[in-house]
Amino acid sequence: MLQLPKRLLAEFIGTFFIVFAPVFVSATSHLPSGDSTLLTAALVSGLSVLAMIYTLGPISAAHFNPAVTLAFAAAGRFPWRFTVPYWLAQFLGGAVAAGIVSILFQSGAGVHVPADPSLIPRNFGTEVLISFLLMLVIIAVATDRRVSNAVPALAIGLTVVVGVLIGGPITGGSMNPARSLGPALFAGGAALSNYWLYLVAPPIGAVIAALVYERIRIDHEHAVGAPNELLEALEEISGS
Fold first, then answer.
1. Residue numbers of the domain that contains 177
2. Which of 34, 50, 192, 236 is deepest in the core (most CB within 10 A)?
3. How many CB atoms lie within 10 A of CB 91?
4. Total of domains in the chain
């Protein structure tokens, strides 16, 4: 069906590597040449997203994030019927990545746990805001046919870097439920009990951003879906 299996495999692979990279770096931070700084975590997170978008964007539109998929669907830029398959591929990719790192090193590497779990409004607000920022950039560069193909990966990757730098000291800077789930599953304890924050806040921030951007979008004739060819194909099927 419209190359869906290939798209789902691309989502699995892309999510795998954007989770594997920062979690692996976290697992090796205790080694003599390891690096545990926030800047390193931010750069590895952003650059892995950048690389995967360039690599797999033409296949699946490179969502790699359940919050992004939900936001695209809410904005009418992605078919609702494919949200659950995309989510399953993304969550599975993140879980497998965390599982491999747990086998190679230790369980619980790269977990996201708020610095102070008791400060729920601060933690929730942080994740909502940085997820809003990320999705605002994503929908702007990914759903306008006038944007050069070279732009989205760079813009989105750098925004991930900014988001991790902002949210890192407070929540770890997740912005992605699939990024946080895998490590939490293998760490258990506080990581798993606080996972609700990363499951709820990023989708809220992302959906609000997508809806806001659609409201302020001026040149609707240049707007495209994510992925556009899938949306157009479905529209043709529905209209026939």
1. 4-239
2. 50
3. 18
4. 1
